[in-house]
Design brief:
Elements: H1 5-11, H2 14-28, E1 37-41, H3 49-52, E2 58-63, H4 66-76, E3 81-84, E4 97-103, H5 112-125, E5 126-137, H6 141-146, H7 160-166, E6 170-176, E7 182-188
Parallel strand pairs: 1-2, 1-4, 2-3, 4-5
Antiparallel strand pairs: 5-7, 6-7
Protein name: Class I SAM-dependent methyltransferase
Enzyme class: transferase
InterPro entries: Methyltransf_11 (IPR013216), Methyltransf_Superfamily (IPR050508), SAM-dependent_MTases_sf (IPR029063)
């Protein structure tokens, strides 16, 4: 799921890491109890990981890109478990995590079917009562320019609740950011 050069530069920048810490994660995880064992699907260059590792007892990160997974392992492997794995086919046992999270990455998944397999995997590896939470961007002119020759398959906030329910989740909530530019979702495994 390649990203163009400008997109890679942005996502690996300190400015993006600060935006994640100050704006994205506080909004996406508002009123979400992560628990002790958390899986992040698609950590990319680790902007979210560096915040999450300070908030939970045990963090596991599943990154599809081998080079990026190695980079994360070298930077964070002493504080988090880093897996080179597709979020749709996780080498993890059923019911292993209190929460599963993903931030600003689902639009990089090329098809709705693949996104739905990620949702199903998140459900499978959650403990009963566990939470699946995250956020992603919504289309805009600037967002489309950033994704020139990139994968850009944004989530439709109108259909996302039903998709999460089909994966088995209950208590599904999808909200749009009041200032625009993104959505957040929360769902539970009963």
């Amino acid at each position: 799921m390649p990203m163009n050069r400008a997109h890679r530069k942005l996502c690996s920048s300190e400015g993006w890491a600060q935006t994640t810490k100050d704006r994205i994660l506080p909004w996406a995880l508002e009123h979400v109890e992560l628990g002790a064992d958390v899986l992040e699907i698609g950590p990319g260059y680790g902007a979210n990981l560096r915040v999450l590792v300070e908030q939970v007892d045990h963090l596991t990160a599943a990154e599809i890109d081998a080079d990026t997974a190695r980079l994360l392992q070298s930077q964070w492997g002493d504080r988090a478990t880093v897996l080179h794995a597709d979020g749709a086919e996780l080498p993890l046992p059923d019911g292993a995590f209190d929460s599963v999270v993903c931030f600003t990455m689902l639009h990089h998944v090329p098809t709705v079917a693949h996104q739905d397999r990620i949702f199903a995997e998140a459900f499978r590896i959650l403990r009963p009562g566990g939470t699946f939470a995250g956020s992603d961007s919504q289309p805009s002119f600037r967002f489309r320019v950033l994704h020139f020759r990139d994968t850009m398959n944004t989530l439709d906030p109108a259909t996302l609740p039903a998709r999460l329910e089909r994966a088995g989740f209950t208590d599904v909530a999808v909200d749009l950011h009041p200032e625009g530019g993104g959505l957040r979702f929360r769902a539970r495994r009963a």
